[in-house]
UniProtKB/TrEMBL annotation:
Family, per entry: Belongs to the mycobacterial A85 antigen family.
Protein's name in the database: Acyl-CoA:diacylglycerol acyltransferase
InterPro entries reported for this sequence: AB_hydrolase_fold, Esterase-like, Mycobacterial_A85_antigen, TAT_signal
GO molecular function: diacylglycerol O-acyltransferase activity; trehalose O-mycolyltransferase activity
């Protein structure tokens, strides 16, 4: 389970050559009704290179796209009655965290089927890079790694074209863990009309606080794990406009009218310096975010739970129930 994979962050540090704490914060503690996808082909800049549709619920696809330079994949978890009901369903885009072992399979390994159970929702779980930060980087030495464009301009319309979804604001939610929680905040603010519900599980909400710890974290982790020295926001000088465009606490009004849920840990392992720094930064950033939402009169639901930088299964199930209540019904 994601919750039990905390030691993988140490492996991330080791594999990346002993990154600093700022670099490692990206590591996860882990991660309109159209024709069925089996009848679909290419489109939206994507070409399906592999597919798996033998499992009645968990279908997967691998794509060729000029936006990433390699073939990313996506898992699509279907409702139990998808093949028999003929109904249209809301969609959750669920974004994994950072780490060398994190990808589109992370939530499947964590038991996503059991967590979702029989709830009437499609769950889409795409690749986002080991440290892609759900962004188009300022620079890359390994070819394109434009995860934001892949997700928002290519994958999202492809899903709507190939599955029975509500292709509208009230039909979509986005959530994520750690780096994926940041991606959920970011996509919701930058693409206002796409998601009616947003949630972050130990996901940072402030890029600039504490001398820009999270922005540095994004830069250094991406440089080491994904971009061969490139960066998300620019090094040593940031692209300040891009940081502001991505920074949740600078986009507060963009969350107005949406259902908002967040959770962070209050007691990371006092012996594990990585755990302490990581979740401490997440918690402080979420508190800053909540204060700004309060000042703007924007409602939200927040939890502070014992423990550190882990994916909390019970919190996710509560979050999922809130999403389904908010979204258009199947």
């Amino acid at each position: 389970m994601l919750k039990d994979q905390t030691p993988t962050r140490r492996r991330v540090l080791k594999a990346a050559g002993g990154l600093s704490a700022a670099a490692a914060l990206g590591g996860a503690g882990v991660l309109a009704g159209a024709a069925p996808a089996s009848a679909a082909g290419d489109g939206f800049g994507l070409r399906v290179t592999e597919r798996g549709e033998s499992d009645p619920r968990m279908w997967w696809y691998r794509f060729s796209t000029d936006q990433t330079g390699w073939d990313p994949a996506v898992n699509v978890l279907l409702p139990e009655d998808y093949h028999s009901s003929g109904r249209t369903y809301p969609v959750l885009y669920l974004l994994h965290g950072g780490g060398l072992d994190q990808d589109f399979m992370s939530f499947d390994k964590a038991g996503i089927r059991g967590l979702v159970g029989g709830r009437p929702i499609i769950v889409v779980m795409p690749d986002g890079g080991h440290a892609g930060w759900y962004s188009n980087p300022v620079s890359s030495n390994v070819g394109p790694r434009n995860w934001e464009t892949f997700h928002m301009k290519q994958l999202l319309p492809w899903i709507d074209a190939n599955f029975r979804t509500y292709a509208e604001y009230d039909g979509r939610a986005v959530s994520g863990f750690s780096m994926g929680g940041f991606g959920a905040w970011k996509y919701t603010a930058k693409y206002y009309g796409h998601f009616a519900s947003v949630s972050a599980h130990s996901g940072p909400a402030s890029l600039r606080r504490d001398l820009g710890a999270v922005a540095h974290w994004a830069n250094v982790s991406s440089a080491a794990a994904d971009l061969a020295g490139g960066s998300i926001y620019g090094m040593p000088l940031w692209d300040e406009a891009r940081v502001s465009a991505d920074n949740p606490v600078e986009r507060i009004d963009s969350y107005r009218g949406k259902r908002i849920f967040m959770v962070a840990g209050t007691s990371p392992d006092p012996v594990n310096w990585f755990e302490r720094i990581t979740e401490g930064e997440v918690l402080a950033g979420q508190r800053e975010f909540r204060g700004l939402l309060d000042n703007a009169g924007i409602a939200y639901e927040a939890r502070e739970e014992p423990g550190g930088h882990v994916f909390r299964h019970e919190m996710f199930k509560q979050d999922l129930d809130g999403m389904i209540e908010r979204l258009r019904k199947a």
